[in-house]
Write a structure and sequence with these properties.
Blueprint lengths: L9 E6 L6 H13 L2 E6 L14 H9 L4 H4 L2 E5 L6 H15 L6 E5 L16 E4 L8 H10 L6 H7 L6 H10 L3 H18 L9 E11 L2 E7 L8 E2 L2 E3 L6 H13 L5 H7 E7 L9 E10 L14 E8 L14 H9 L12
Parallel strand pairs: 1-2, 1-4, 2-3, 4-5, 6-11
Antiparallel strand pairs: 6-7, 6-9, 7-8, 7-12, 10-11
Helix pairs in contact: 5-8
Keywords: Hydrolase, Nucleotidyltransferase, Transferase
Protein name: Bifunctional NMN adenylyltransferase/nudix hydrolase
Pfam families: CTP_transf_like (PF01467), NUDIX (PF00293)
Length: 358
Amino acid sequence: MTRMNKAPDVAVYIGRFQIFHNAQLALLRRALAAAPECVVVLGSAFQARTPRNPFTWEERAEMIRIALPEADRQRLKFLPVRDHYNPAQWGAAVKKGVARLHSGQPSVVLVGHLKDATSSYLRDFPGWALDDAGRRGDIHASALRDAYFGAARDGSLEAALAALVGQAPASTLQFLRAWASLPPYAVLAQEWENLRREKALWSGSPYPPVFVTVDAVVQCARQVLLIRRGRSPGKGLFAVPGGFIEPRETVWQSALRELAEETGLRLLDSDVEAAFKAVRVFDHPDRSQRGRVITHAHWFDLGPRRPPELTAGDDASEARWLPIDQLAGMEDQFHDDHFHILDFFFGLTADAAEGSAA
């Protein structure tokens, strides 16, 4: 990090802000006091709604705006950034986005708190000064989300919001109260409950579980084979065919079995071997809502032939071929990091900006 000899032109504050709370508000105020302009970088910007990422980046920007007086709102700019699951690529996207918002080469101070491994990214911006502001209260957005979605079980929303007084701005609580009347709240509350029950099954394990899965990325005539998930987590979202590895299978055997079970696609061994192009491991700790899930994505190219017929089964409610050139506009319709998997193989976002700032 760089030491600054003069006041910075821009303060940058990075977060997911799911849900925006008082500790984050304190850091935001510090950023606003540090420079005449403040860029708030909104992570996980284009994902589908999930219990971990319930709010769109526009909703989070509004949640932040309404917590501030009008004069401070005028000094804010919001930069939505997708999860690249690659620190260098993600950091480059942040720096490029900030530069796009300001002409010339402004001096930048990055305001944040180096609390643990999840905030180590603050050290990845050479040329920017770092203002490590320290802890601003023992408040965790995950606990706030648990209280918010857990309230749907017994209709105790008002009691849950009352318990959050002192942890989140009054404007955030008002936002949450209004948002709970929208259709996504009930859907995500059910998804949250299903995930809670699943994780409870592993609560007695002496070590945090690490799951191994497989995926099959199959392309044919510039189309890719996708399913719609038929159950939680991610019910109704697009996904690459795949699933958990069986105890007596190799990852190769599991990938072919899951492909057949979910899509009905069965190929001769010789055709499979000819179509196989590569395998890539995706192992980011935050890639799955279930917890730590490491997947092996197998890439197959069936060539320019007519795409085979499909029959959805097992965990899939639908199996279909989608044109690859349409995927870039569908990021918010994919389960977990499956858009990122497709992006890796097909370069869906290679020429795309991170999004329009607000």
